[in-house]
From TrEMBL, chains A, B:
Pathway: Isoprenoid biosynthesis; isopentenyl diphosphate biosynthesis via mevalonate pathway; isopentenyl diphosphate from (R)-mevalonate: step 1/3. Belongs to the GHMP kinase family. Mevalonate kinase subfamily. GO terms for molecular function: ATP binding; metal ion binding; mevalonate kinase activity. Its main location: cytoplasm. This is Mevalonate kinase. Its EC number is 2.7.1.36. Pfam families: GHMP_kinases_C, GHMP_kinases_N. It is found in: Cytoplasm. NCBIfam families: mevalon_kin (TIGR00549). Residues 295-348 form the GHMP kinase C-terminal domain.
Length: 388, 388
């Protein structure tokens, strides 16, 4: 039997940066996924019992003899999958040694921390069983769409799906969701993985990927909500790498220099985030009000973008995207840290496919990468595949 | 003897649109001028006594027999140049008839109201003396740089300079300024001219053009101040015509739809305008602090631009200018109504001429028109030229 999990990426609909200064922010899942497939090795299938990890998008494959992994985790006797725990300093050291031995090529060294997270989650949840794990993703890496969180969530979900802590119907056809308590467990394990990758993650990305839908957050408190509407976004990846820490620090410095003005800017963002959550949750009975809702969301995005620019986190490539989409009267805003990264453009329901194609062609001719994504769908899901 | 007057254009440094909703705005003069030359005809120089108006930039020339003008203003016996008065409805009708007879070509019909203002100011201040008035300007028309106000101010100044209400040394070489009381009189007459051109002008443009320097305004109250620094701006005319009324209405509508967020946006602009006036008035003893001051001004401009975008008054051409100047790390903001019009880019003192040339070349290759202007110089000035 093969267990498959898919976990969605995320976008920040409103409130990035301002959330650091106490404003509300709103994140949502998108229907672009990271997929994890897990298949335990049958006793006869391998000469040496090993754990294999296949990263399809990076065209990398790793394999560890189970005995080596067991040596790296000496204190683990029985896996405690029901109790998410952090990787200790000693354990992190052992894992780092295992990963170093892989000699990952320099150009793909950014994946090393993901491999470490994999080893920690796998061993902690499944112990030392030989298996093959295959990863593939529709999400660009390191572009602020929550690819690492989706990886950790899908991995934790696949691993937990075959433990006693989860009761799913293995004969169900197609994708199936976890129960609430099980999602909580997946989310907590994924957060432990995110800590290995990012050091101090906010926990937003893994929560959105695990639970899906829309989450507003303010001062560290998350509020989950369900959108009453289905929005479509064009996501443009400028492919410009960002230094999130430097961008966050830049906003704080600007705040120190212009305290009064920036306080008002952050308050304006807070109002926008609140209005957005209200708008997305209100029932929309007919097409006319769908259009009205979309106009409102577009206007709030445009306003939020202006405020982000006044915080100084825009970038020439972001301006290029804005200018291009403005020509087609489409509302856009950066999503995440800014300074490059991704830009969201609302695609209204009634917008013709021809226009969408034109916009995408123009953006791609500037060297950008475009995705179309639905906003606010399900979180992580599982599928069991039985070989016939 | 020829009397020459020159009156500066203006830019809005901060607060446009937000000022309509109670925020502070800051305007300043620029060293781009409209010139008016006035020469009374000597009795022998014309067969028929006439008033001639020459608009150099439009390549138009008009002439009226003095008798026709006298007929249009039947109630005027003696000119009351010391008492600025509004053009009455009947008088406006007579003037309109005079202007209609000129058969101004369709493409230049926008100048008609300026000709009307000319006829009113000339007759009210100088009565019915035959003369030749020549107008030329460094300011693009209808681009938000206060070209009509500069025209009215320069015209009123030239006309008043040769009345008893003004005492100037006619033998002074070069440009000379008016006294305070005389400036007040020039400014009031210019405002009457602006009313003929614009219907309901705010009075900011003519005040900046008359008094020069920097003027902050809030809720209809003007505060004149002197900058302690000399800033240089690159002014880019996008050549896209705007509908100021529609733009102002658009912001008000957005305010009604998103009252909380927009109130914070306007408050942020108010803080920016106040900080800007404080910064511009503070003494800058050395080059280091000039650079610091320029960085502060640039940052405030960038913040203001973001807030203007959140009000929805940007335009694709403005975005193009922003994107171009951002590449060179130069701060820009739209000035005036937005939706096209002009964009300001701060040129720091230490910026190399090569970079300036590059930026200008790139902007002009996009079809824009560039000017370099000093900020906050003198207001209207007079020069007497004696033919040798």
């Amino acid at each position: 039997m093969e267990v498959k999990a898919r976990a969605p990426g995320k976008i920040i609909l409103a409130g990035e940066h301002a959330v650091v200064h106490g404003s509300t922010a709103v994140a949502s899942s998108i229907d672009l996924y990271t997929y994890v497939s897990l298949r335990f090795s049958t006793p006869s299938s391998d000469n040496v019992e090993s754990l294999r990890l296949q990263l399809n998008d990076a065209a990398l494959e790793f394999s560890w003899p189970i005995s080596r992994i067991r040596d790296a985790f000496p204190e683990s006797v029985a896996p405690l999958f029901s109790k998410p725990t952090s990787c200790s300093v000693e354990c992190a050291r052992s894992i780092a040694a295992l990963v170093e031995d892989l000699n990952i090529p320099e150009a793909k060294i950014g994946l090393a921390s993901g491999v470490s997270a994999f080893l920690w989650l796998y061993s902690s949840i499944q112990g030392f069983k030989p298996a093959t794990v295959v990863i593939s993703s529709e999400l660009p890496l390191g572009s602020g769409l929550g690819s690492s969180a989706a990886f950790c969530v899908a991995l934790a979900a696949a691993l937990l799906a075959v433990t006693d802590s989860v009761s799913l119907d293995v004969n169900h056809q197609g994708w199936v969701s976890f129960g609430e308590k099980e999602l909580d467990l997946v989310n907590k394990w994924a957060f432990e993985g995110e800590k290995i990758i990012h050091g101090k993650p906010s926990g937003i990305d893994n929560s959105v990927s695990a639970y899906g839908n829309i989450i507003s957050f303010k001062s560290g408190n998350l509020t989950r909500m369900k959108a009453n509407t289905s929005l479509k976004m064009l996501i443009t990846n400028t492919k410009v790498g960002r230094n999130t820490k430097a961008l966050v620090a830049g906003v704080s410095e600007r705040m120190m220099r212009h305290q009064d003005a920036m306080a008002f800017v952050f308050s304006a963002v807070d109002s926008i985030s609140k209005e957005l959550t209200t708008t997305l949750q209100s029932p929309t009975p007919d097409e006319l009000s769908v259009t009205e809702m979309e106009e409102k969301v577009g206007e709030l995005m445009e306003m939020n973008q202006g405020l982000l620019q006044s915080m100084g986190v825009s970038h020439a490539t972001i301006e290029t995207v804005l200018r291009t989409t403005l020509k087609y009267k489409l509302a856009s805003k950066l999503t995440g840290a800014g300074g490059g990264g991704c830009v969201l453009t609302l695609l209204p329901t009634l917008l013709s496919g021809t226009v969408v194609d034109k916009v995408i062609a123009e953006l791609e001719s500037s060297g950008f990468q475009c995705f179309i994504a639905g906003v606010g769908g399900n979180g992580v899901e599982i599928s069991f595949e039985h070989s016939s």
